[in-house]
Amino acid sequence: MAGSDRRKRATPAAPGPAVVLVNPQLGENIGVAARAMMNCGLADLRLVSPRDGWPNDKAVAAASGADSLLEAAELFGSASRAVADLNYVLATTARERYMAKPVLTARAAARVLREKAAKGVKCGVLFGPERAGLVNDDLALADALIQIPLNPGFSSLNLGQAVLLVGYEWFQAADATPGVQQRYGQSQPAAKEKLDNFFLMLERELDECGFLRVLPKRASMVRNIRNMFQRAGLSEQEVRTLHGMVACLTEWRNMPGETSTPVRHRRDRRKPPKPA
């Protein structure tokens, strides 16, 4: 999805875990991973012996604007050197490795990473090569493992996907964006007084045309109509538009020659066309 606001900072607001790509095979996947990192506010990219060498033009093309991460990426000859300055390391794996280590979901790992980062602990996450993932010697460097619960029959992820999933959970662990947001554009949410005025107008017209003619049911029908419009979260402009619509639909009563007879009892005054 497009939607980057170039006026806002593209760098993270708080230090995030280092993303360590061990023996990545394709430059394109490194670029996509860098893009995912930028999406999630991560900036520390470390590369361990990329198969196709470094720097890589294909990585730049796939990064789609996250060039600064690629330019700042550090290159290492082994995973152990890449994590040497870190205090806490997680490693991703899609397979059961039968190691005596805690196994976390990406969401649980994000909470742990946030807690440790708040205490000044330097953290990192290891991601393995596309074909087979991390080898056991690399997993042995980690304090805990990350497994992402997916379809057991098809749980392998592209490198960029894996980085995005872990990065997203890390970002969300400190994001306060409400789950549901009401957008009103240039208009404000309608004041209750404005809504009530519209409801009274609508109910008056519905009485006039006979829609609310069944008196025992009138109160519940009015409540249902009001609740229907209340759920819509109307803006001031939308309430004005509804006022205009109802007024336009009822203008016939004030037209010369018209009576106040409800529409449901009126005959169509238009004459049928004469035969040719």
Please name the defining characteristics of this protein.
276 residues, Alpha/beta knot, Helicase, Ruva Protein, domain 3, 2 domains, seven-stranded parallel β-sheet
In the CATH hierarchy, what is the class of the largest domain?
Alpha Beta
Q: Distance between the terminal alpha carbons, to the nearest Å?
A: 58 Å
Strand % is 5-15%
Q: Decide which structural class fits the backbone.
A: alpha/beta
- CATH topology value of the largest domain: Alpha/beta knot
Please report the total strand number as a whole number.
Answer: 7
Global morphology:
elongated
CATH architecture of the largest domain: 3-Layer(aba) Sandwich
Explain what you see.
With 276 residues, the protein is α/β, with parallel strands linked by helices. It has two domains: 155 residues, SPOUT methyltransferase, trefoil knot domain (Alpha/beta knot), CATH 3.40.1280.10; 62 residues, Helicase, Ruva Protein, domain 3. The chain has ten helices and seven strands. A seven-stranded parallel beta sheet has the order 3-2-1-6-4-7-5. Helix 1 links the parallel strand 1 and strand 2. Helix 1 packs parallel to helix 2.
